[in-house]
From TrEMBL:
Residues 15-189 form the PPM-type phosphatase domain. It comes from Hymenobacter swuensis DY53. InterPro entries: PPM-type-like_dom_sf, PPM-type_phosphatase-like_dom. The lineage of its organism: Bacteria, Pseudomonadati, Bacteroidota, Cytophagia, Cytophagales. This is PPM-type phosphatase domain-containing protein. It comes from the Bacteria. Pfam families: PP2C_2.
Length: 246
């Protein structure tokens, strides 16, 4: 199994990258992957995505410790993911109160996958806009550029909110998985771009194409190639994670 990561600030964001990514093991055979995109129209959106990522990592680490010591039984992936999101939901709700945060300071998308690296089963949940590649198929989750952020629902019972989520994917045998924030659709020509006829499909090139699969820095190389060969750069921040089984 090989993991590829990319986090790049967009050309239109001069100060901060508003995206974030998480790769965190959970026990011997489970792996959590997530990409997050802070809302540009929110307050200090880089803080929102970073905070949510740190909370997610904390929750997964704590569950791993509890499973190791026998305090928490290992559950099916769907149940495990639900438990993780429930814990994140409660942690963020408490932090909102403790830090006196406004809802606009917590607006970030969250696209999370829980993968069994032994059986290769995977479950994916997209809370907001995202592009997910699973076994050679691209799935776009779009909410008309108005994501229904988790932070909007902290006042609600968790189960009531979670049971309404429909942006989910499952696969019993994952061979190739990719998660990307919506910055993957923001690649545009620079002012000095050379004219090229055959400009690649950027999401397919970064999430599906197998060229350079033997290189850990595959995504970085491809993004540089997009700029140097086609004059394409991301105008929005972009976070990408890919997992490939040999």
């Amino acid at each position: 199994m090989q993991i590829y990561q990319l986090l790049q600030r967009g050309a239109y964001h001069a100060d901060f990258c508003e995206d974030f990514s998480v790769v965190q093991p959970l026990g011997a055979h489970h792996l959590l992957l997530a990409v997050l995109d802070g809302c540009t129209m929110g307050r200090e959106s880089h803080f929102a995505s970073t905070l949510m990522a740190k909370v997610l990592r904390k929750v997964v680490k704590e569950r791993a410790y509890r499973q190791f010591y026998g305090d928490l039984p290992t559950a099916p992936l769907e149940t495990e993911l639900r438990g993780i999101i429930a814990a994140v939901f409660e942690e963020v709700r408490q932090l909102k109160s403790q830090l006196h945060l406004e809802t606009t300071e917590l607006l970030t998308t969250l696209v999370v996958a829980l993968l069994d690296t032994h059986s290769r089963q995977v479950v994916v949940l997209a809370l907001g806009d995202a592009t997910v590649a699973l076994n050679g198929q691209l799935t776009r989750f779009e909410q008309d550029n108005r994501p229904d952020y988790l932070a909007y629902h902290l006042h609600r019972p968790f189960a009531e909110w979670y049971d309404q989520q429909q942006q989910m994917l499952h696969a019993p045998d994952c061979t190739d998985l990719g998660l990307a924030t919506d910055g993957i659709d923001s690649f545009a020509p620079t002012d000095t771009a050379a004219v090229e006829v055959d400009v690649p499909d950027v999401p397919a090139y970064l999430l599906l194409d197998q060229e350079l699969a033997g290189r850990d820095e595959m995504l970085t190389i491809k993004v540089r190639r997009l700029e140097k060969t086609f004059g394409l750069v991301p105008t929005d921040d972009v976070a990408i994670l890919r997992v490939r089984f040999a």
